[in-house]
Design a protein that fits this description.
Strand content: 15-25%
Structural class: alpha/beta
Largest sheet: 8 strands, parallel, barrel
Mean pLDDT: 97
Low-confidence stretches: none
CATH architecture: Alpha-Beta Barrel
Number of helices: 11
Distance between the termini: 8 Å
CATH superfamily: Aldolase class I
Bound molecules: 1,3-dihydroxyacetonephosphate
CATH topology: TIM Barrel
Radius of gyration: 17 Å
Helix content: 40-55%
Strand order of the largest sheet: 1-2-3-4-5-6-7-8
Shape: globular
């Protein structure tokens, strides 16, 4: 693996002015490392100001969601061309909060992934099991089903533009990250599912871990060759902890 990828998912945090302050802090605290790609996913309304501030940096921009249509009577939604024009390179799709709070189905997620790719946006496709699914021994089948449903109809060439984020639901916002062994096991399942069904080169697949990643546990997680980076929630809302995670990602590459 040549590069690690760290994405900060701000969720519904930071007004425009707060977003500008956080980005300025990150830009002044972080010494870019060519072995690490650092991206931020602010709320929609802050995307234009964050894009302007990132223009002369190496950091990249992600959206937290997208709708699957180009335009039309879809009140409250945002299309892939709108995000593209704002300078987004990535879009998070299928986050567990979208699935569980907003009722997004595997089919919605699959349509969004197709639409994003069609417009040259790279999906960061989130999957993960709930606690009761893990406790009843269903983790592997849940992960395989989410992968097959979310990526249905994609060609291997499309998959090269998709990043997978394994985010066990029980680890999100709970302070209980998966252990490196737990994450490594599931990342291996994801990699083998993608290589088997889409004949991909395992080295070309980027799989992030997400769920209570902190400046304290990042280095341990990154020791696993299966873990190509992190999708960070709470710890990305503070420049110091986000930059520390990014620095851990660059340590041994
Ligand atoms: P936390 O890092 O706050 O657990 O959130 C993880 C997440 O959902 C990132 O998308």
């Amino acid at each position: 693996m040549s590069k690690r990828f760290i994405v900060g998912n701000w969720k519904m945090h930071n007004t425009i002015s707060q977003a500008e302050t956080l980005i300025r802090d990150i830009l002044s605290d972080y010494q870019p490392n060519p072995s690490v790609e650092l991206a931020v996913a602010p709320p929609y309304v802050a995307l234009p100001s964050v894009a302007r501030l990132l223009a002369s940096s190496t950091m990249t921009l992600a959206a937290q969601n997208v709708y699957a249509k180009d335009e039309g009577a879809y009140t409250g939604e945002v299309s892939p061309p709108m995000l593209k024009e704002l300078g987004c390179q990535y879009v998070i799709i299928g986050h567990s909060e979208r699935r569980h709070i907003f009722g997004e189905s595997d089919q919605n997620i699959n349509e969004k992934i197709h639409a994003a790719l069609h417009h040259g946006l790279h999906p960061i496709f989130c999957i993960g099991e709930r606690l009761e699914e893990r406790e009843s021994g269903q983790t592997h089948s849940v992960i395989q089903n989410q992968l097959q449903a979310g990526l249905s109809g994609l060609e291997p060439k499309d998959l090269k533009n998709v990043t997978i984020a394994y985010e066990p639901v029980w680890a999100i916002g709970t302070g209980k990250a998966a252990t490196v062994d737990q994450a490594t096991e599931i990342h291996a399942v994801i990699r083998s599912t993608l290589t088997t069904h889409w004949s991909l080169d395992p080295e070309q697949i980027t799989i992030l871990y997400g769920g209570s990643v902190t400046a304290d546990n990042a280095q341990t997680l990154f020791q696993s060759p299966q873990i190509n980076g992190a999708l960070v929630g709470k710890a990305c809302l503070n420049s110091e902890s986000f930059v520390k995670i990014a620095e851990c990602a660059g340590l041994d590459l």
